[in-house]
Amino acid sequence: MRLRGLEQLDDPRKGGVNMNLVFVALLLTAPAQEKNEAEELYRKMEKQLTAAKTLQVSFEMDIPSDKGGKFKGILWLADGNKLRMDISGEMAGQKVKLEIVSDGTKLKASGSEMPKPMEQATQKKLKDNVVTVMTRAGLFAGLFFPIIITDPEEQPKELDADAMFGVSEFKLGPKEKIGQQEAQVLEYTLTLTEAGRKKLMSVSVWLDAKTNLPLQRVLLVQEYSGPRKLDHRLSY
């Protein structure tokens, strides 16, 4: 026996809806909603930090490998591309110290790994670029890539951290504690693009459940010798 109601529902010519299309639409909608929830949480955090007129962030970083190291530092950042960053620690068994200051026009850098102090024009998007790097890859990535300091032997150029540090494939992880603070784990893929080359990293970030600010970030970088872990902790 065939039910006329279902026949009409499945026949668009009779004012019905094609059930096959409805079923496909439901399959496509469910994962998208889950993905949007995770990405919305991330974008909210990014928007908070981008909108801040001033930022003061203390950070620690651990790179567990033979050539890795441990660092700690503090960043002051303000509108008008004003910045101060102090970093100290150890890299491959050697003491490292670095100081970077921008008054909004000129940027000066000095440190143990530099033969002499360096001075260059402050990039016009310095504050935006630093915040983008901090939210996506961690502050130290801004030093490995020419986001804060550009190569003095090359022609200075304006850089776009948003294009260099792409984020995608957001997923919600479990809720955990960082010290005494409740945190929501968020996972995503970071794509680093430089000179036409791309490198993928798996990133986990712990967002404070109350402030939505990042408390800790772990990056897994795929090297030839295997994955390399970078552990980055923040406080505000």
Low-confidence blocks of residues: 1-12, 15-30
Count of alpha and pi helical runs: 5
Order of helices and strands: HHEEEEEEHHHEEEEE
Radius of gyration: 23 Å
Q: Distance between the terminal alpha carbons, to the nearest Å? A: 69 Å
What is the overall pLDDT average? 78
Largest sheet: 11 strands, antiparallel
What proportion strand? over 45%
In CATH terms, what is the fold-level topology?
Answer: outer membrane lipoprotein receptor (LolB), chain A
Structure description:
With 236 residues, the protein is of the alpha+beta class. The chain has one domain: Clam (outer membrane lipoprotein receptor (LolB), chain A). It has an 11-stranded antiparallel sheet with strand order 6-5-4-3-2-1-11-10-9-8-7.
Please provide a brief summary of the model.
The chain has five helices and eleven strands; from the N terminus they run H-H-E-E-E-E-E-E-H-H-H-E-E-E-E-E. With 236 residues, the chain is of the alpha+beta class.
List the helices and strands and how they pair.
Layout: H1 4-9, H2 19-51, E1 54-63, E2 69-78, E3 82-91, E4 94-103, E5 106-111, E6 118-121, H3 126-136, H4 141-144, H5 161-164, E7 165-178, E8 181-194, E9 197-208, E10 214-223, E11 226-235
Antiparallel strand pairs: 1-2, 1-11, 2-3, 3-4, 4-5, 5-6, 7-8, 8-9, 9-10, 10-11
Helix pairs in contact: 2-3
Entry keywords:
single chain, about 240 residues, alpha+beta, outer membrane lipoprotein receptor (LolB), chain A, 11 strands, about 45% strand, globular
